[in-house]
TrEMBL record:
Cofactor binding remark: Binds 1 zinc ion.
Domain CMP/dCMP-type deaminase residues, every copy: 1-116
InterPro entries reported for this sequence: APOBEC/CMP_deaminase_Zn-bd (IPR016192), CMP_dCMP_dom (IPR002125), Cytidine_deaminase-like (IPR016193), DHFR-like_dom_sf (IPR024072), Eubact_RibD (IPR004794), RibD_C (IPR011549), RibDG_C (IPR002734), Riboflavin_Biosynth_HTPR (IPR050765)
GO molecular function: 5-amino-6-(5-phosphoribosylamino)uracil reductase activity; diaminohydroxyphosphoribosylaminopyrimidine deaminase activity; NADP binding; zinc ion binding
Residues in coiled coil: none
Binding site for substrate: S162, R178, L198, R201, E289
EC number: 3.5.4.26, 1.1.1.193
Protein name per the record: Riboflavin biosynthesis protein RibD
Reactions it catalyzes: 5-amino-6-(5-phospho-D-ribitylamino)uracil + NADP(+) = 5-amino-6-(5-phospho-D-ribosylamino)uracil + NADPH + H(+); 2,5-diamino-6-hydroxy-4-(5-phosphoribosylamino)-pyrimidine + H2O + H(+) = 5-amino-6-(5-phospho-D-ribosylamino)uracil + NH4(+)
Chain sites annotated for binding Zn(2+): H44, C69, C78
Length: 363
């Protein structure tokens, strides 16, 4: 099952709205088929593994990181494919909460007389499929917030200069994370100040994540990488229902997808509504790169699932721009806390990963 989960990760960032599933077929202690969800979500992992195994699938044990689908879509159900191949046993990490499946795939396999074992490596699978599971259960994708800062937690000098606080190894790591997510998101302030491209570069990757900008009034520059390359990589703009119709039309003419979301009591786009809109559009995993005000809003809304921090050995002082905007915290006990996952060196910098308690009440 560990191998199935590892294979599934190869599809991350490329197969939404489907989950990134892995499948391994084992016959008498030998792997005869391997597969993972392909770009665009088809074919599914089980279909790829069965095609590779051929007649050797008969009597084999199938290890699948998520319950085989039980509904007809662009392809027939994977549970039926496993039955037709006459596998001898199916081992599943997790049930699929999609109402079109949710135990149905398991039931059909068992009805065919094939034994099914559930819950193998379930905790690992919960993390591997976190975004898909959240979208099915609570209607929003998993959210990773990235912060790159100086040793004293600043993201820019007093004049706004920020390129580059961290070194090339850290920036390369960021591009790898972009490639493994369905979308890269920033707030309107970052789009106006930094003119980011938000694309994956330097890794030989052919696909690009959806580029998302949250700006209530669409006060975004009509030049720069986002506007000029909207046809090369998808651009989705989250805006308020009161955004000027002319601006919406201008961005749509450039190829952008404009999505109206609710505005919160503070006059800014509601962070949870933003994620729910992205979830409704099929995204499972979103990678947010700021800026400080938007990042703080996401933290205050308690919808950040993972924190990725890059820390450089440089200090910018109190006059520098803080990594996050105001959170309104007056008591340490009320400060949001995340659980440590790992840390490692990247060239001249360090990266540290923190995770929201997976057992906490979902939002």
């Amino acid at each position: 099952m560990d191998l199935a989960l590892a294979l599934g990760r190869r599809g991350q960032g490329r197969c939404w709205p489907n989950p990134a599933v892995g499948c391994v077929l084992v016959q008498e202690g030998r792997i005869v088929g391997r597969g993972w969800t392909q770009p665009g979500g088809r074919p599914h992992a089980e279909a790829v593994a069965l095609a590779q195994a051929g007649h050797q699938a008969q009597g084999a044990t199938a290890y699948v990181s998520l319950e085989p689908c039980a509904h007809f879509g662009k392809t027939p159900p994977c549970c039926d494919a496993l039955v037709a191949a006459k596998v001898g046993r199916v081992v599943i990490a997790l049930r699929d909460p999609d109402p079109r499946v949710d135990g149905g795939g398991i039931a059909r396999i068992r009805a065919a007389g094939i034994p099914v074992t559930e819950g193998v490596c379930a905790a690992k699978a919960e993390l591997a499929h976190l975004g898909f599971l959240k979208r099915q259960r609570i209607g929003r994708p998993a959210l990773t917030l990235k912060l790159a800062a100086s040793f004293d937690g600043r993201i820019a000098t007093a004049s706004g200069e920020s390129q580059w606080i961290t070194g090339p190894d850290a920036r390369r790591h960021v591009h790898a994370l972009r490639a493994s997510h369905d979308a890269v998101m920033v707030g309107g302030g970052t789009a106006r100040i930094d003119h980011p491209s938000l694309t994956v570069r330097g890794l030989g990757v052919t696909h690009q994540p959806v580029r998302v900008v949250a700006s209530r009034h669409l006060t975004l520059p009509h030049w720069g990488p986002l506007a000029e390359r909207a046809a090369d990589a998808p651009v989705w703009l989250l805006h308020g229902i009161d955004a000027p119709a002319q601006k919406i039309a201008e961005w749509q003419a450039r190829g952008a997808r404009c999505m109206a979301v609710a505005v919160g009591p503070d006059g800014q786009l509601d962070p949870l509504a933003c994620l729910q809109a992205l979830g409704a559009a099929g995204l499972n995993n979103v990678f947010c790169e700021g800026g400080g005000t938007f990042g703080a809003a996401l933290v205050k809304a308690d919808i950040v699932d993972d924190l990725i921090g890059y820390t450089a050995g440089v200090m910018l002082g109190a006059e520098g721009w803080p990594g996050l905007g105001t959170l309104g915290i007056s008591e340490l006990a009320k400060a949001p806390r995340f659980e440590f996952v790992e840390t490692r060196r990247l060239g001249t910098d360090i990266v540290h990963h923190w995770r929201r308690n997976i057992g906490a009440a979902d939002r």
